[in-house]
Design a protein that fits this description.
- The complex is a heterodimer of chains A (163) and B (149).
- Chain A is mainly alpha-helical and 163 residues long.
- Chain A has a single domain (10-162), classed as Ferritin, core subunit, four-helix bundle (Ferritin, Up-down Bundle), CATH 1.20.1260.
- Chain A contains 5 helices and no strands.
- In chain A, helix 1 (10-39) packs antiparallel against helix 4 and helix 2 runs antiparallel to helix 5.
- Chain A is globular and about 55 Å long.
- Chain B contains 7 helices and 4 strands; from the N terminus they run H-H-H-E-E-H-H-H-E-E-H.
- Chain B has helices spanning 3-18, 24-31, 35-47, 63-86, 92-99, 105-112, 139-148; strands at 51-54, 58-61, 125-126, 131-132.
- Classes of the chains: A mainly alpha (163), B mainly alpha (149).
- The interface between A and B is medium-sized, with 30 and 31 residues.
Chain lengths: 163, 149
């Protein structure tokens, strides 16, 4: 066991990025699922619809960027399709209670993703290890993704406050 | 999971294994830190009311420390189950130990939504095998992981 925040190998880094991909899958699947449930809702809320559509698109984009980083690392790949199926299956049977429930769930997803990238960036900066990909590019990419998650948190909070 | 949580979890498991206080030496070995570092952190845990240290006997968690340790163990169990069941990692114990310091409780809670965790968690955790008892540990992966420790 290692005590302290450190990322020291390609393998460990790849695993953490894979966890990031799963978190993005969760955001994407839940946003999509909630978006679908809105179509049957009696009163369509255009603001929430736009927010969820944007969240799903952004998560898909983040996932692709993370996949791009993993490709450059010396690590085994994981079955993404299986994970996608698993995540979607998990949320297929859960229905949000109401719009506030959807927003709260979205807020939790965005906050969790933000915290994850923030911790990962901190662990990378605390380590002087070299990886199979350029360290500067790696950290820059993660910082950009983290900032987009922060904007996501802000957007959901703003929408929650106006309701 | 922060450093204090890793310590209280390790003390909790050692207390179970030793059926009494956890010795500083065993704690340092388990966490792969020097006895001096372990002593320093034990002092911090004492000042936070999470543990009590008795000279020549060892360290014991307070009730508050036990609550904190069980939460940390639950987070660790989520990481192990996620690696084993979602990412199909055979050496999930080694990897869970590596990832533990970087995975926050909030993140573990989200990962928990896609795994099947048993109701008895964290009592499902076996300190001897360092794994959730509901996870299958193959002989090959157990040997590889022990030699890697």
């Amino acid at each position: 066991m290692s005590v302290g925040h450190r990322v020291t190998s390609d393998h460990q880094l790849a695993r953490l990025l894979q966890i990031g991909i799963v978190l993005e899958e969760v955001v994407e699947a839940r946003s999509y699922h909630h978006y679908q449930s809105l179509e049957d809702a009696p009163t369509l809320d255009p603001d929430i619809e736009t927010l969820l559509e944007h969240a799903a698109e952004e998560s898909a984009e983040h996932r692709k960027r993370l996949e791009g980083l993993i490709e450059g690392l010396d690590a085994e790949s994981i079955p993404f399709e299986e994970i996608k199926t698993l995540v979607e299956a998990r949320y297929g049977g859960t229905e949000p209670e109401d719009f506030d429930d959807i927003l709260y769930d979205q807020l939790c997803n965005e906050e969790t993703a933000y915290k994850f990238y923030d911790d990962l960036i901190g662990a990378l900066r605390a380590s002087d290890a070299t990886f199979g990909i350029d360290r500067g590019h790696l950290i820059d990419t993660l910082v950009e993704i983290r900032e987009e998650e922060a904007e996501g948190v802000e957007e959901v909070t703003k929408l929650m406050n106006t309701r | 999971m922060n450093t204090a949580d890793q310590y209280v979890k390790a003390i909790y498991l050692l207390q179970q294994m030793e059926n009494g206080p956890a010795s500083t030496g065993a704690l340092a070995d388990r966490l792969d830190v020097s006895p001096a570092s372990a002593n320093e952190m034990i002092g911090k845990l004492e000042s936070r009311g999470l543990a009590e240290h008795e000279k020549y006997k060892g360290v014991t968690l307070t009730d508050e420390g036990i609550v904190r340790a069980r939460d940390a163990l639950q987070t660790y169990c989520i990481i192990e189950r996620f690696l084993a069941n979602v990412l199909s990692v055979s050496e999930f114990r080694t990897e869970a130990r590596e990832l533990e310091p970087v995975i926050d409780d909030l993140v573990a809670e989200r990962l928990d939504t896609i795994i099947d965790r048993n109701d008895d968690c964290p009592d499902c955790f076996d300190p001897e095998t360092d794994a959730c008892c509901h996870l299958e540990i193959s002989t090959e992966s157990a040997e590889t992981e022990q030699s890697a420790d």
